[in-house]
Structures are given as C-alpha cells and as structure tokens.
Amino acid sequence: MGNYAFHFLTLFLLLFRPLSATSNVSELFEIWCTEHGKSYSSAEEKLYRLGVFADNYEFVTHHNNLDNSSYTLSLNSYADLTHHEFKVSRLGFSPALRNFRPVLPQEPSLPRDVPDSLDWRKKGAVTAVKDQGSCGACWSFSATGAMEGINQIMTGSLISLSEQELIDCDRSYNSGCGGGLMDYAYQFVISNHGIDTENDYPYQARDGSCRKDKLQRNVVTIDGYADIPSNDEGKLLQAVAAQPVSVGICGSERAFQLYSKGIFSGPCSTSLDHAVLIVGYGSENGVDYWIVKNSWGKSWGMDGYMHMQRNSGNSEGVCGINKLASYPTKTNPNPPPSPPPGPTKCSILTSCAAGETCCCAKKFLGLCLSWKCCGLSSAVCCKDGRHCCPFDYPICDTDRNLCLKQTMNGTRTEILENRSSSGSSGTWSSF
C-alpha cells in the first residue's frame, strides 16, 4: 500500500504543478536518464522515479539559490533515489563497534611541523575512486585506501587492494555489506599476514563466501594501526601530513547525497554512519578544508571527492570528522611474490591444473569415482556432473545450460550463458 500511496501522491504533485514546470522537469529527467544510462522496469516505476527526481530537483534548486552557501548541489546519478533509499544502500559504518576496540600501545610519533597544504593524490599515494554500489561496506574502502596509501609511501608502489576479501573473510566483528569498522579490518590484515589485490580478488558489491585459496596471496602487509584521540583536530592534521587517514563521518544528510562541489560546511549531524578517507587538506578564500575521498563512484562530488570544512570551531568537526580516525602503520617490507600455484589435488591419483577446480563427475554411495576439471578457479560444480559455474554465478540451471546469480534484492537473477561445450579432452564446459 505504501508504494501505491506514493505513486498517487506523485501523480497529484505532477498534475497540479504549473504546466511549464512539469514539462521542464520531465524533459530534464529524460536528459538525465540518457546521461546516466538509467532505465526502469515499468512505466509505473519510471513515473515514481520522476516524482523522486522532481523532489530532488526542488531541493537542489533551493539550496543553489542561497547566497551564503560555500558549496553547490547537483542532480547527480543518485537524483532518482529518495533520501531514505540512498541512506539504506550507501552507508555501512558501525561506530558501535568502537566500544570493543582493543587498547592500543603508545601511538606512533607524528610530524610536528606540517605544510600549509598537502594532497596525497599528487604524491602518487591514492588509487582511483571506487564505487561500493548498494553494499554497505564503506568501512572496507576506507581501510584499503589507508593501506594503499601507507604501502605506496613506504615502498613506492601503488597497489589497489581487495575490499571483497575484507567483506568475505573479515567476520570476527565486521559484517560485510552490513557494516563494519576500519580498526578490525586492519587487525584482520595483521592476523592474516597481508591482503590480496583488487585484481586477484575483485569486488562483487555483495556478501560472499571467503575464498580461502586467495587468503594466502598476501601482496601487501601492515604492522599495526593507531587511533587518533577523539576530537583532536591538531593530531588529525599531523596524521594526514604523514599519510592518508581513515575517518568516520555522518554521510546521511540529504545535501551529502547531492553534493557537487565547493567546501561542504553542513548543516550536518555528528552521528557517525559512513566511512571515508582523508587524502589531504588545503585552504580556499580563507576557509580551511579536508580533501575527502568517498566510495560512491566518480559521478558523485568532484570526481568522487569532497572538500569538507576543517577548523570549523566545533571540536567534533563538520559531520563528526574529528571523532573517530585511525590509520595503519608499516615498517616491514612486503612478502616476496607468491610462487605460481601448483596443480589442484582432487584425490590421491587425480589432479587438475593450477587455476582449475576439481568436480566429481560420477558418485557411488557418496564416494567420487570419477573426477573432471573445470577450467575456472573456485568454481561451483553442477549436480549434473557435466557443467560448472563461476563462483560469482553460483546457481546452475542445467535445463537451460545457464549460470545464474541472485541480485542484491533477491527478486531476479542475472544470466551468464554457456559459451563453450564439453570437449573430448575430458574438461567440463566453462563459462
């Protein structure tokens, strides 16, 4: 009933707008859909999104007409989402976990003299902006960003690290797409003796099973981490002068959703619900700001970045940015590259090549009598004994010879078609 009530309200608002305004917003919406590649499942859904877009249009227009604002808003790629929808899908920081953080030893020494401005992007210590999608794993992006930064500073090599490994495998306290805290991500990497690369363990924007074959592919290590005292903006500045720093903020303000450019100054709550990365600082027209890297893609903000006011006079900082900050530490070198993986052992007498998966082709009384090799790593073996599916398309549809995966909302499947057939060499069809 709630959706239909909203659709009716949308129709009412559109019908009773001045005709020219309705026409202009509708035309603008069509242009926006084309620009952002948006399409909808039905005319009803499109009308609903038009109503949301029109409401966001009014909010953006009202803000941008203010005379004293230090930042502007825009109809970015999230302009067809209600503020509630956006908050549910794009946050994921769990500040309550900080109550369980271990007491850390004496924090590392920080530089006393800091430059007037600094941008770690210009020093090669920041990877490209990433997009968490509809997965509340901002904590993992903040953590990998900080580890990428300190690794580059210490080794000279900028390596994009795997958020998905943290989402799937760091489960002692963190909850994947359900939220987490950067400190526990650092602790996981320390305990695991390193973390894999983004390229080897790619992001899926959903919770998955821990790929244990990837856990020992430790390309980058850290030695520890440090927490900056809450509400100590001076110490935070010193830390950022040394390396990129993870912080919690309030990212649930409506203006945050539609931010475009300028120095964001609020109004903003200081109740933390989002995690980002500070990659530098500067000043403009006498106003000091932090350079904040977000994980909402390059279509948000200034190519994925925001300038957020610092030295605001509030000890907690704008959006609580001074309240909960931490960073990884590194003194030891990374491990040498792992040797190429050896054959995959199926049984005492049978094995598959490196990077392949053993699948049982014939069973008797629960014992496998015959093995075949799927030409994919960590694949899912189908029950028909003739096909396999990629780990990220784990549902076998043997009737149609397809591999499927469940979407985030669980209402539909996406299809990856069988592109090869079984050969005489005994290998299974691979996708």
Description:
With 431 residues, the chain is α+β, with helices and mostly antiparallel strands. It folds into three domains: 2-68, no CATH class; 88-329, Alpha-Beta Complex (Cathepsin B, Chain A), CATH 3.90.70.10; 344-417, Laminin. The chain has helices at 2-15, 19-36, 43-64, 83-90, 138-155, 163-169, 182-191, 233-242, 254-257, and strands at residues 71-73, 118-119, 224-228, 245-249, 259-264, 274-284, 287-293, 305-309, 325-329, 344-345, 351-352, 357-364, 367-374, 380-381, 388-389, 395-397, 402-406, 413-417. Strands 1, 2, 3, 4, 5, 6, 7, 8 and 9 form a nine-stranded mixed beta sheet that branches. Strands 16-17-18 form a three-stranded antiparallel beta sheet, with no helix packed on it.
Could you please say which CATH topology of the largest domain applies here? Cathepsin B, Chain A
State the helix count.
Answer: 9
Uncertain segments: 1-21, 408-413, 415-428
Secondary-structure arrangement, i.e. CATH architecture of the largest domain: Alpha-Beta Complex
**First-residue to last-residue Cα separation:** 42 Å
Number of strands: 18
Based on CA atoms alone, the radius of gyration comes out at 25 Å
Helix content: 25-40%
Encode the helix/strand succession as letters.
Answer: HHHEHEHHHEHEHEEEEEEEEEEEEEE
Top CATH class of the largest domain = Alpha Beta
Structural class: alpha+beta
